[in-house]
């Protein structure tokens, strides 16, 4: 049975070790818990006339020095109660006028919920205009939903498809059954729709008036299978009319095993899209290397979302950036991905303090900070709910079109460097612009989901790669010309040098729309390429550099890393937990 993994990454409170890779955090997980449970000592901060003096003091009482912190003339130490008592009684004097100071290593918690992610994408402006997602139901296929979080939103359906059992209930009793032993699903659902109000009077959720269905397809460890996910999507489609389900959030991923149209999960995604449900997927956390988007983010119909960071300064856009962990396109079938990016760095939302993620990385608080494209996708799902309340007649293709054309790309054409279209898609999502957009017909052009599902035709995107290894986009005019200009060509490099990428708080006046953004979602019948593709030596898709062609399901040797097994990429900020178990 194939397994899928999440794209949400816990961000530890300060007492937890920071800047740890995915692999190292997994390997340290069990020992760190065991040590904490069995050791009779606790952690302290011991100060002295110097860090060296503090070290000597700890060693004199036979304590364990964990680290030196010269900044405050201290060491981190592990001491028994008796050892700590010796220091507290000031029996050790470093100098005649300076005694050892000792402080317990206190936990640091998020004091209250924030709405930074909503502010950044201008969701409060939409709320103020009377739109909150009412009348729209969003389904999350994830680890479930914490009962207390469910009470802070309108949960209308609970489904549990993990393993061989199948439980489904609609209506008020859904909240009674809700549970989330892992924590991932709760965090995402709260970002999209919690009705909790912050001290500043803003909603925690992007669409606080929306209704939600929680489909538990992943267990307490965050593990799930293809069958579980497909069963969940099947239930969603069957019950979409009864519960008003218009959006499905899929914040998970699996390694590529075949072309998108041969993959069972992608087939289910296409059928869900065909049924009129907007499918929002996470890009993955395997960036910044190109072609790192897996299943179902590689689905050409779905809306794939990458992650951006406000650098934890929501009122200052001069330091905003695209996160380095965010997976990038193109896909093996030449589609430009992701379509858009959204907040995905240190995003705060509710989580059960007793859940696996909270117990492993948290501090016992009700709110938890995570980074990942999982969070980005959930935020976009909330935006889609706002859009559908404002215009209930929108098709999934229309929603995708308006999200892309209302986003604003980083930088400007005059910049020496900007993030590539393969890194940011159309740019940062903007709730206000998307809700009031009137655009139609600019997404998924020349694609045919019915033909794809029936096997009548399959499609390739407008991306190509030249002899120098540069990825670029082909225009959709008769000549099929190569698009030139900043951002349309990319060699796979990630740079932090851009800075000042979004120049103003209001995205109505900042950034710029790509001149031919609608070309990104265009498709061509597989093998029916524009003439210029032969000039670019891109016949024999995908790229002619993989051995995917002709491989039966599960037998491919596609180059790349299964989710969770790639080399860790440190994020932009030193000291931030770079990767964590998915």
What would you say this structure looks like, in words?
The protein has 582 residues and is α/β, with parallel strands linked by helices. Helices cover 25% and strands 18% of the residues. It is built from 18 helices and 25 strands. The strands form seven sheets. Strands 9, 10, 11, 12, 14, 16, 17, 18 and 19 form a nine-stranded mixed sheet that branches. A four-stranded antiparallel sheet has the order 4-5-3-8. A three-stranded antiparallel sheet has the order 13-1-15. β4 and β5 form a beta hairpin. α8 packs parallel to α13 and α9 runs parallel beside α11. It starts with a strand and ends in a 47-residue tail after the last helix.
Task: State the helix count.
Answer: 18
**What's the pLDDT, averaged over the residues?**
77
Structural class: alpha/beta
Report how far apart the termini are.
Answer: 18 Å
* Helix proportion range: 25-40%
- Overall geometry: globular
- Strands, count: 25
Largest sheet: 9 strands, mixed
Strand proportion, as a percent range, falls in 15-25%
Kindly provide the radius of gyration, computed on alpha-carbon positions and rounded to a whole number of angstroms.
Answer: 25 Å
């Amino acid at each position: 049975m194939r397994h899928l993994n999440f794209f949400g990454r816990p961000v530890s409170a300060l007492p937890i070790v920071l800047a740890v890779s995915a692999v190292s955090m997994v390997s340290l997980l069990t020992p760190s818990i065991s040590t904490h449970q069995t050791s009779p000592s606790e952690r302290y901060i011991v100060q002295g006339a110097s860090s060296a003096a503090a070290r000597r003091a700890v060693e004199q009482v036979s304590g364990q020095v964990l680290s030196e912190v010269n900044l405050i003339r201290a060491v981190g130490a592990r001491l028994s109660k008796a050892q700590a008592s010796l220091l507290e009684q000031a029996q050790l004097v470093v100098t005649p006028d300076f005694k050892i100071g000792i402080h317990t290593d206190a936990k640091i918690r998020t004091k209250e919920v924030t709405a930074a992610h909503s502010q950044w994408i201008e969701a409060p402006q939409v709320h103020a205009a009377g739109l909150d997602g009412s009348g729209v139901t969003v389904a999350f296929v994830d680890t479930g939903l914490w009962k207390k979080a469910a009470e802070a939103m309108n949960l209308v359906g609970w489904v549990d498809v993990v393993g061989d059992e199948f439980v489904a209930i609609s209506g008020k009793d859904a909240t009674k059954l809700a549970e989330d032993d892992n924590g991932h699903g709760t965090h995402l659902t709260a970002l999209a729709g919690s009705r909790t109000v912050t001290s500043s009077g803003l909603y925690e959720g992007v669409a606080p008036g929306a209704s939600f269905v929680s489909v538990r397809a992943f267990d307490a460890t965050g593990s799930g299978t293809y069958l579980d996910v497909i069963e969940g999507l099947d239930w969603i489609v069957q019950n979409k009319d009864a519960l008003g389900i218009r959006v499905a959030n899929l914040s998970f991923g699996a390694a590529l095993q075949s072309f998108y149209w041969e993959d069972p999960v992608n087939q289910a995604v296409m059928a869900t899209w065909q049924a009129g449900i907007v499918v929002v997927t996470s890009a993955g956390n395997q960036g910044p290397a190109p072609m790192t988007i897996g299943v179902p983010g590689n689905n050409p119909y779905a809306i794939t979302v990458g992650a951006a960071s406000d650098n934890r300064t929501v009122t200052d856009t001069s330091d905003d950036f695209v996160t380095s962990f965010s997976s990038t396109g193109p896909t093996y079938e030449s589609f430009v991905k992701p379509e858009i990016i959204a907040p995905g760095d240190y995003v705060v939302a509710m989580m059960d303090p007793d859940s696996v993620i909270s117990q492993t990385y948290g501090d016992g608080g009700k709110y938890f900070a995570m980074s990942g494209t999982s969070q980005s996708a959930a935020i976009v799902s909330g935006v889609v709910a706002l859009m559908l309340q404002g215009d209930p007649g929108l098709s999934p293709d229309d929603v995708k079109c308006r999200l892309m054309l209302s986003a604003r790309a980083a930088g400007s054409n005059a910049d020496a460097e900007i993030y590539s279209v393969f890194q940011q898609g159309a740019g940062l999502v903007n709730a206000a612009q998307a809700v009031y957009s009137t655009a139609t017909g600019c997404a998924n052009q020349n694609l045919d989901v019915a033909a794809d599902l029936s096997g009548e035709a399959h499609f390739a995107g407008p991306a190509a790669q030249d002899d120098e290894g540069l990825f670029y986009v082909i225009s959709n005019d008769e000549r099929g010309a190569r698009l030139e200009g900043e951002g349309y060509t990319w060699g796979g490099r990630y740079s932090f040098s851009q800075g000042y990428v979004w120049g103003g708080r209001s995205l109505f006046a900042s950034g710029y729309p790509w001149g031919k953004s609608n070309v990104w979602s265009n498709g061509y019948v597989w093998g029916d390429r524009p003439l210029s593709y032969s000039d670019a030596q891109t016949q024999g898709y995908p790229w002619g550099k993989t051995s995917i062609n002709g491989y039966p399901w599960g037998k491919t040797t596609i180059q790349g890393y299964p989710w969770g097994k790639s080399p860790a990429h440190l994020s932009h900020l030193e000291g931030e937990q770079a990767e964590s178990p998915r």
